[in-house]
Specification:
The chain is built from 14 helices and eleven strands. With 451 residues, the protein is of the alpha+beta class.
Amino acid sequence: MKVRAFLWIFLWCLPLFSSSLHADELTNLLTGKTDSAAAGTDKVISTGSSVQSDKKIRERLQSIFRELEAIKTVSISVNNGVVTLDGEVDSSASETKALQFAKQVEGVVEVQNALVINRSMSKRLQNTWDKLLVMGKQTIAALPLFLLGLLVFLLFWMLGGWISRRQNLFRRISPNAFIANLLGQMTHLVFIMFGLVLALTLLDATAFLGTILGAAGIVGLAVGFAVRDTVENYIASILLSVRNPFEVNDLVNIDNFEGNVASLNSRATVLISPDGNHIRIPNATVFKAIITNFTRNPERRFQFDVGVDTNQNLLVAQTLALETLQIMPGVMPDPKPAVLIEALGDSNVQLRIFGWVDQRQHNFGKVRSEAIRGVKQAFDQASIVMPEPIYNLRISQQTETPTALKPSVASVIDRRDVQDVSVDRTIADKVQEEQQVSDSENLLTANAPKE
């Protein structure tokens, strides 16, 4: 706050100082102008020139020059309308001023410049000191007005800040927290600009505002090109927060990256993969990517393929697989599971098995795994052959149960004949932990419109 206030004080003081400073010598050096002010004009030369008219021209110029401290010592001579200026002046600005006055007098045909600019160090130091004194007096005279302008600016600054912190007001306009905060910042900026215009108006420096805005536009354009990706991500975050394509803890696939949504901030979308890793995707990529939300619809279908021997009764195999899915924990009765013949191979017939899972009550991966195990076990018990493309030759004289399979292990397998297919909260807990430790604001809101 102190740095910003000092900056504005400097900007306001700049017009007061700039009005009294001239870089005449540097301007002439850069532009290459010397006596361009003495160039001729397109005036019509009168035929009635006389000694009396030359005298009037000289007297008129002398009376003007005497009123101006910088050029009052310039000597003037006039002959047939041609004015010759001679003497010393303190700067090129005084020289230009003397030439302009001479050319404006009626009857002057041409102005001869014989002026010499005094480049004495002591003279220049004296002139500089005099200008500093004048500038100091002007600053002291304008100090009350300057303080009033500063007070007006600070009042509007604080008023805008106070209004921008009233988030309840902006939440009525937009329920989205991010948009409400953005509206508050824009309101603060409007108050700052209005206070600046009023302050510059009081100081009679409104032209300086155009200079500031022009410089700000050029700087903004350069910065915009430099941080184009950052601006693109910021705009994408606004659009994503307005129309939420996903919520916190939704399982999504974004640009071939799959994971549970942890947060959406002003720069990136954070996912937690099934492996527990953090994936940060720029919002610009998220906005343009194809998003698959596996959680938005709680009913999700799984599928897997099973190959059976070509000599088997396919209708019996389909019926057995279908009955197995119908009694499988976690498989929904409606929509009904289905078993279709997918393809006829060289050594088998491929069956494609479909089932539906309510992800709010059961874990999708566990149910699918249990369905595969159940179908495989049912086919084994019904002696339905599932051939392999590779033939294995096994030679063994043992007909008993291998000793490696201990009774205790067999009993454990029997007790685990039906797996737990409840919802796995491991990744959900990690998402909750991410919400607690994250220092950035999450832009995802439950009450925002959903796509």
